[in-house]
Amino acid sequence: MTFKQRGALALSTVQNKQMTITPKVGFVSLGCPKALVDSERILSQLRAEGYTISPSYEAAQLVVVNTCGFIDSAVEESLAAIGEALAENGRVIVTGCLGAKGDIVRRTHPKVLAVTGPHAADEVMQAIHAHLPRPHDPYTDLVPPQGVRLTPAHYAYLKISEGCNHRCTFCIIPSMRGDLVSRPIGEVMQEAENLVKAGVKELLVISQDTSAYGVDLKYRTGFWQGRPLKTRMTELVRALGELGAAAGGPWVRLHYVYPYAHVDEVIPLMAEGKLLSYLDVPFQHASPRILKLMKRPASGEVNLERIRAWRAICPEITIRSTFIAGFPGETESEFRQLLEFLEDAELDRVGCFAYSPVEGAKANMLPDPVPAELREERRGRFMAVQEKISRKRLKRKLGRSIKVLVDTVDKKGAVARSGADAPEIDGVVIIADGKSLKPGDWATVRIERADAHDLWGSLVE
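RESULT FIELD:
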């Protein structure tokens, strides 16, 4: 064989290898847990079709950036992430909420390959196919039934619906994600069962409006494991609680629960131990006038009555909420009314945002906007009041033994969470003598110290 022939053979071999190389896609996921679930679905489909997920820009042949566009800081972060991906890789597809905000992505980054809105997995896959054709032989057996997850192996988000039927004046999410679309209850339950079988020990139920689940379907009856099941929040979470009990007790945690009257139905399930005694309810404010301007339901007085009733049924319930300080037209008197509500309600976990005039929000047109500096000052005052409340409520746990789920372990010990702590948004339980534990382990810890956010304790033998 001549040198020329050997060279031709080598070139042919290289070309054949290049044709069989698995295409690699990089992925950047930003935003809320709902966006994270969108990312998981796209990643699952990519793996089902035989693509490899690249951990770096350099090794990827294309990068998908799932964006957030809820508030101005999120828009800036998303645009920066797109710019970084373009600089490091050059071939970028953009999806998520920012993609639904007109042409802001194309105006800022005209070199992106494609732009889609949120919950648009099919459109994203079409764009990927156009710019990076799928392999001829998809390795479907490489994808587990629970799909590809970005969370640790021991907890997972379970998204039950998309969109929202409310038109809160401070929010633009319905314009990006559309009206409420509930997933079939059998599909949700099957996903939950697959997750539990894969070792997931905590299911975090999420949506834009969890308590509205099934409204769009008129609560029609679906089926799971041959049994009829109404597409409604109470029936869904009861079934999830039974699934957890049958599988050894995975936690079921409820997020984004709009304060409808029927939310009262799930509190007894918490008292019975079928669900975590944890409720994430975004009250947003306490002033009846401000709530009306926000187009939110109820009032501070009604919500206080609900909270007292919930605690009477389930004394151990942890209530998390979010509020807005400095909403347009908010007076000092109305802000003090919010602080009084906070002191009366003694909520366990609270977040507060200074009002952000998001482009497209109807609240921006309201009279008497609060100056930015005053909005931040009120947010600071609000959080100072809540810090005292949080410190007081956590101090009550001193000396108690509580069940925790371990998130991380290093040389300093273990970091875990109790049933009162959702991942990444609430506090943690630090276990100095937990070096022998592993992520995903259950443990019992005696609480020895507390501050306004976290707990410290030692393992109970």
